[in-house]
Amino acid sequence: MLIYIKFLIYLFAILFSSYLFAQEEYAATEMQNYFIQKSRNLQIAKHPLWSRLLFYQKKILGDSKGIIDSKNFYVSPNGKTDLTQELEATLRAFFKNEPDPNYSAQCLFPRRTKWLKEMLDDKNFQIPTKQCPELEKWISMLNPKGVVLVFSSFYLNNPSSMFGHTFLRIRNSNSALTDYGINFAAVPDTDNALMYSLKGLFGFFEGYLSILPYSFKIQEYNNSESRDIWEYELNFNQEQNLNLALSILEVGNHNIDYYYFDENCSFILLALLDTIDENFKFSDKFTLWVNPADTIRVISSHPNMIKSINFRPSAEKRFRYRYQLLTPHEKQVLQSILKQKQQLTLLTERLPPQSIAKVLDGLLEYIDYEEKLAGTETAKKYSQLRDDVLNYRASLRIISDVMPNEAPPFERPDQGAAGTSIGLESYYSTHRQAELQFEFIPVLHTLDSPSLGYPKDAHLELLSTALRYNINDHALSLSKIHLVNLVSIPPLYPPSYPIAWNLNIGAEDLNAFKNSNQSSAELVYFAKGGAGMSLQFQWLQFYVLPQIGFAYQSKKNYGIATGGLLGFIVRPAETWVVFTEINWMSHLNILNSSWNENFLADMSLSKLTFDNLKMTIFARYNSATTDLKFGFGVFFHFF
Question: What is the C-alpha to C-alpha distance for residues 628 and 630, in angstroms, rounded to an integer?
C-alpha cells in the first residue's frame, strides 16, 4: 500500500511539473510573440540605431550589411544581411533556457538587450533579465567613467600606421596607469611590408578588438615608436559610457576582416561610438576610405563633443626639449659623453651642479629615444652609461625642469584640412598652350600643401591621379598616376642625425627618354627612391635626396636612372607654403646604352583658406620637352 501511495505521489509530481513546464513554455511563447508583434508595429527593425548595433555599413553598390565576420555575432543565419530576421531571432533567443547563464542571449548581446528592453518593455511584459557573472566582472574591471579618443601621430616606418592610428581609452580614474585602452588592429601573418600592404588592401587579415592597460599603449607609441599622442576626452554622460562598454564586450572576440582603407582601426571605432546614442552617425561620413586624422575632425565637429584635449609628446620631442635648454657648452659636453663615453665624474670639472643636472636629463631622454626603450626594456648600446646617469642624477637632488604638455596648436590633427582632395588647375603650356588638369588625391598630405594639422616633414600620397585636357585640341589624356609617393625629411639635429628618404612608384607624362619637342603624351612607368638629409632653419627647410630608379616607356626604351632631388620649403605661416623642388635624373637605355638627361623644376605658392580650400599658383619646367607651364589651381578637401 505504501509503495502504491509513493508511486501516485511521484506520478503526480511528474504530471504537475510537466504542466508547469508547459505553462512556462506557453507563457514564454506568448511573450515572445508579443514582443515580435510589437517590434513589427513599432518598426524597430527600421530604426537607425538597430542597424548600428548590428554594425551594418552602407555600400555604394548593393544593400547595407553587417561588417562583423564571425558567424556567432548574428543570431539568425541571415542576420548579416536581414535586419528584421536578426531582430526576431534575437527576441526568440531571449526566452531560451541556457544551462550556463553566461551563454544566454542577454549576456552575449548586452548592448542590444539593453536597447530592446528600453524600446519594448511595458507594464504588460518585460524581456527577461539574466544574471551574467562574466559580463559583470568585465564591467566592474572597465568601470567606465569617461571615454577618450586617442590619436597616435603619423609613423612612416610602419605601413599600418603611416597615416596615424586611433584607439579609445576607457577612463576609470584620474590616472592613465589604471585606465584601459580599446584597440582594433589586424592580426598579421607576415613581416614583409609589401605583403602586409597587399593583404591589408584586400581584407586578408582578421581584425580584433583588444582590451589592455592604457599604459602599454603609451609605452608602445610614445616611447618605442616615438609618436606624439593626442587625447580627446569626449563629453559623454554615464549612460553613454556604459553603452560603449556594453558594445565593446558584445563585439568581444568576434573578428572583422581588416581592410586598410575602409574597415580599419578608425572606422571600427567610429562604428562603436555610433552604438552609444541614436544621434551619433559618425561612420556615415565615410564611404570609400577612412583615414584616422579625418575621424578626429569628424568627431571634433560634433557640437559639444570634445570635453578637453591633452598632448603627450613623443620620446623625440622630449629629448629635443631637454636639448634646447642646454647652452652651447653644455651641448658639447653631452655630445662628447655620447661619442667618447667618458666618465661622468669629469662633468664636475667642467660644469656647475645645475648644468650637470640639465645635461644628465638630456642624456637620459636621448638614450631612451635612441634605444626605443618602453616599459621594462633595458638599454643595450648605452646600458652602463644609462645606469651611471641614473645614479649620478639621483645623487644631485635637483628637481628637473618640467616639460610643458601644452599641445602645439598648429600640429593638432583636428585643425588640418580633410585628407582627400580634388583640384582643378588651369595653365598655359609653351608646347600645348592652354590646358586644364583635374587632379584627385585620395590620401593624404603633400609637401607643397600648408602644414596645418599635419607633420611638416612628411609627404604621404597614395593613388593620386591627374587627367589633362587640351582646350585647343579637345583631347583628354592621363597626366600622371602615383601609386605610392612617400617622402620623409626629418631635419638633422645633433646628436641624432635622422635619415631623409623617399619612394615614388607610378606613371607620368614625362617624355623622359625623348629629346624631341613633340607634344603628344607618352607615359613613363617608374619606380624610384633614395636617402639623404634635410636641414631646418626656422621657417625654411632644405632637403637633398640622391635618387636611383627604373623607368619603362616601351619595349625599346627602358632602363635605369640615377640623379638627385633637391627641395626648398618656406612656411611664413601655417596656412601658407612656398615650395620649390628640382629633380635631375640621368637615364641609361639598357638596349642601346645611350644616356639621356632630364631636369624637372616645380615651384608653387599655396594658401589654405576656409579650412578646406587650397589655392595655388605654380610654374613647372621639363627639360625633356623644353616645356614651361604657368598656372593657377584650386583644391577642395573633403572626407
Answer: 7
The number of folded domains in the chain is: 4
pLDDT tens per residue across span 101-156: 899 999 999 999 999 999 998 888 899 999 999 999 999 999 999 999 999 998 77
- Is there a contact between 125 and 31 (Cβ–Cβ < 8 Å)? yes
- 585/582 Cα distance (integer angstroms): 10
Do residues 552 and 521 share a domain? Answer: yes
- Same domain, yes or no: 305 and 323: no
- Parallel/antiparallel/unpaired status of strands 595-609 and 613-622: antiparallel
Judge whether 262 and 207 are in contact, CB under 8 Å. no
Grid coordinates belonging to 48: 537607425
Q: What is the pTM of this model?
A: 0.89
Q: How far apart are CA 53 and CA 48, in angstroms?
A: 9
Q: Domain range spanning residue 194?
A: 140-312
Q: Grid cell 590619436 — which residue?
A: 151
What is the C-alpha separation between 473 and 462, in angstroms, rounded?
30
* Residue for grid cell 641614473: 390
Q: Which of 2-11, 55-64, 323-332, 450-459 has the lowest mean pLDDT?
A: 2-11
- Report CA-CA distances (Å) from 545 to 132, 160, 535, 596: 61, 25, 12, 20
Cα 595 from chain centroid (whole Å) = 43
Residues contacting 336, CB < 8 A, separation 6+: 342
Q: State residue 396 phi and psi, 5-degree precision.
A: -75, -30
Q: Is the pLDDT of residue 161 over 80?
A: no
Phi-psi region of 538 (alpha: psi -120 to 50; beta: other; left: phi over 0): left
Cell numbers placing 18: 510537466
